Amino acid sequence: MTQVEKTAGMFMPVTIGRASEEIVLQVEAAVLDGRLAPGERLPSERDMQVQFGAGRGVIREAIKTLQQKGLLEVRKGAKGGAFVRSLDVAHVSESLALFLKLHPVNPEKLIEFRETMDRAITVLAIARGSAADKAALLAGAQRLEALLREPEPDLAATDELDRALNLRLARMAANPLFEWVMSALQMGFSSHDYALYADPVFREKAAANWSDTAQAIAAGEPARALSFIGHHYVLLRQCVESRSERPGSVEVPFLNEPSD
Amino acid sequence: MTQVEKTAGMFMPVTIGRASEEIVLQVEAAVLDGRLAPGERLPSERDMQVQFGAGRGVIREAIKTLQQKGLLEVRKGAKGGAFVRSLDVAHVSESLALFLKLHPVNPEKLIEFRETMDRAITVLAIARGSAADKAALLAGAQRLEALLREPEPDLAATDELDRALNLRLARMAANPLFEWVMSALQMGFSSHDYALYADPVFREKAAANWSDTAQAIAAGEPARALSFIGHHYVLLRQCVESRSERPGSVEVPFLNEPSD
DNA sequence: TGCAAGGTAATGGTCGTACCATTTGGGGCG
DNA sequence: CGCCCCAAATGGTACGACCATTACCTTGCA
Question: Which fold has domain A19-84?
Answer without folding.
Answer: Arc Repressor Mutant, subunit A (1.10.10)
